[in-house]
Design goal:
The chain has 208 residues and is an alpha/beta fold. It is built from 8 helices and 6 strands, in the order E-H-E-H-H-E-H-H-E-H-E-E-H-H. Strands 1, 2, 3, 4, 5 and 6 form a 6-stranded parallel β-sheet that branches. Strand 1, helix 1 and strand 2 form a beta-alpha-beta unit. The longest helix has 29 residues.
Length: 208
């Protein structure tokens, strides 16, 4: 079986807890088996909002905007699984990440099954222990479901919806210090790799 291709996207406009958590998730995934990872951050990127012009629907050639989001499309399509990391802004994800996800309409407008059966997990970081991490992850899961992807988590008793980090507004150092939160990330990544391996194995069997 070919390696699992895992894409990690940090949806934070700054270098902080979210980028740290996603990069740690990818590094941990590489210890679990034959996993190839790629990290992308929205930080410093040119990200235009979807304007619902329907160019992608009419032309089926991608998005009308040729910015840094368009450059992410090949990695998004090639990956077998995604880790989406988000800071909590007003109880949900920041505009930068939402714009990236909205712009994925161009991918499925060209091929409605382009993201089908890719496995996805969410990681949310917040300055408060209970600061909106789970609603933010729920928004990520909604994106996965809307695009025929498979949202997963680390399971009951600690990682119910995914990875939840309490950074105490101390950026990467705060995330690193949150042992409970980082364990929820590892548990979620364990399940991500397990489910993705099962799906890839099933497809290999179907093709043989």
């Amino acid at each position: 079986m070919s390696p699992i291709k895992l894409l990690g996207i940090s949806g934070s406009p700054r270098r902080g807890a979210t980028a740290y958590a996603v990069q740690e998730a990818l590094a941990y995934a590489e210890t679990l088996g034959d996993v190839e990872t790629e990290f992308v951050s929205v930080r410093g990127k040119e990200i235009k909002f979807c304007i619902h012009c329907d160019y992608c629907v009419r032309k089926k050639e991608g998005c009308v905007f040729e910015d840094d989001v368009a450059k992410m499309y090949p990695s998004m399509e090639e990956a077998d699984a995604w880790v989406l990391g988000t800071p909590v802004y007003q109880g949900t994800m920041p505009g930068q990440l939402k714009a990236v996800l909205d712009r994925c309409r161009a991918i499925v407008a060209r091929d409605i099954d382009a993201l089908k059966d890719k496995v996805g997990v969410g990681i949310a970081t917040g300055g408060d222990r209970v600061g909106g991490q789970e609603p933010a992850i729920t928004a990520i899961h909604a994106f996965y479901l809307a695009n025929k992807m498979i949202p997963i988590s680390g399971g009951p008793f600690g990682a119910n919806l995914g990875g939840t980090i309490w950074s105490r507004d101390k950026k990467g150092a705060g995330a690193e210090a949150d042992e409970v939160g980082m364990e929820s990330v590892r548990r979620s990544v364990n399940r991500l790799v397990e489910v993705t391996s099962t799906i890839k194995g099933s497809k290999l069997h179907d093709d043989s």
